[in-house]
Amino acid sequence: MYQAADDRYDRMTFARCGRSGLDLPRVSLGLWHNFGGDGLSKSARTMLLNSFDRGITHFDLANNYGPPPGSAEENFGRILATDLAPYRDELVISTKAGYLMWDGPYGEWGSRKYLLASLDQSLKRMGLEYVDIFYSHRFDPATPLDETMGALDAAVRAGKALYAGISSYGPDQTREAAAILKSLGTPCLIHQPSYSMLNRWVEGGLLDVLEDEGIGCIAFSPLAQGLLTDKYLKGVPKRSRAAIGDSFSTDLLTEQNLANVAALNEIAAERGQTLAQMALAWVLRDPRVTSVLIGASRWKQIEDSLGALDNTAFTDDELAAIDRHALDGGINIWA
Ligand code: NAP
Known about the structure:
This protein is an alpha/beta fold. The protein contains eleven helices and ten strands. The protein has one domain (8-227, 287-312): NADP-dependent oxidoreductase domain (TIM Barrel, Alpha-Beta Barrel). α8 (255-270) packs across α9 (275-284). It starts with 13 loop residues before the first strand and ends in a 9-residue tail after the last helix. The structure holds NADP nicotinamide-adenine-dinucleotide phosphate. Residues 30-33, 60, 137, 167-168, 192, 220-226, 229, 231, 240-241, 276, 293-297, 301, 304-305 line the site of NADP nicotinamide-adenine-dinucleotide phosphate.
């Protein structure tokens, strides 16, 4: 029988999510990769329980996480049933709908029909009465935003979600979504964009909008799916995401990119950090970022990543040195 560690809150730091009443751990765990399949693997169970033991209270899912789609939620439901159920009120569990989940015209994008049906399916897979955050996973240009936001509001009013969020919406779309949600009486809690040293699109207006609107920010793929770690400096490890090749292409592992990663690795070493730790600390240096949303294939990686919290301050010289290797002229892959 799992018993959570007594000291689980001693080392984690929390930040307020925008101008809401909800705190999130500064490091959160996502279940996009490595939690799917037929049953919960031993390593997935270890990652989830050890994370909670270290104060990671926020776990992020989506309807389609697997493979197969839906299986990450099913497996998360298993660990809730066997181990984490007594701690439900200490957990912030999120899910999303927006990408293709089932056949036909109602299985993706942003209609009320899709979002609310998908949320019901997610709740069933996880064995939950409610999720803490329900997201629109992507902006739908073919559906009135009033309808998509109305579905998030309806989910909250029905008690199936406590808060509403949006993911990967641009700055103008975010402002409009926030205004609609506010008018409905369900403020937008959080935005989930991609953000890393190599992918800085949020700096082009989105972070300003989030600050103005009082919306929190949880940054996904802060390690650029593993590129911002030392794992590819000596070739492609067998069990890595690049070796599997479904979401991360080895085309990124050019000589020039790897030379820049090696240089970033040295800057991290001078700061007394691993590259993963520095990459996460760099995202967290901006006070508008509530939490970094990491992925992992084994517990050791999460443990390493948690070390980022020991030093999230940067000198101007360090920031400039990072930019020399991570911006134009260095690597700039997902602009
Ligand atoms: P990430 O943290 O950038 O990448 C995770 C990968 O990096 C791991 O699977 C592992 O690769 C490697 N890694 C992690 N920590 C490491 C360490 N300390 N040392 C060496 N390697 C390390 O994040 P992500 O998995 O791409 O995304 C994180 C979460 O964001 C997802 O689970 C999901 O919840 C969310 N997300 C949301 C969207 C959206 O549209 N809203 C899109 C993508 C992701 P290996 O597997 O190769 O070991």
